[in-house]
Design brief:
mainly alpha
C-alpha cells in the first residue's frame, strides 16, 4: 500500500524548494540567516513529524523559533559568564590597590 500523506521530511523539503527564489533574492548576510533557520527545521525533523498537520509551516515555524531561542539562551549564558569574569577581575584589581 502507498502513502496517502507525504512524509514530514518530504513536505518540508517541498516547502524549502518553493522558497529557493526567495532565498536567492536575499543579501548574503540574510541568506546565511535564512539557511540557519532551515537548518533548525531539519535538526528537529523527528519532533515536526509528530504533528499530524497537513501544512508543514506550523512545525517548521516552531522549529525556527526554538532554534532562535536556543541561540538567545546561549548568548544570555555567555553574557552572564563574561559579567562574572569582569567582576572577578575587578575584585583582583581592588585587592592589588
Amino acid at each position: 500500500m502507498g502513502r496517502t500523506v507525504p512524509t514530514w521530511r518530504g513536505r518540508v523539503e517541498q516547502e524549502i524548494e518553493i522558497l529557493v527564489p526567495y532565498r536567492r533574492a536575499l543579501s548574503h548576510e540574510d541568506r546565511c540567516r535564512f539557511d540557519a533557520m532551515l537548518h533548525d527545521v531539519r535538526m528537529r525533523r523527528a519532533a515536526g513529524g509528530m504533528l499530524p498537520a497537513h501544512e508543514a509551516w506550523r512545525p517548521m515555524l516552531l522549529s525556527m523559533i526554538l532554534g532562535a531561542h536556543e541561540r538567545i539562551q546561549a548568548l544570555e549564558e555567555r553574557i552572564v559568564s563574561l559579567q562574572q569574569h569582569i567582576l572577578s577581575l575587578d575584585g583582583v584589581n581592588h585587592d592589588q590597590h
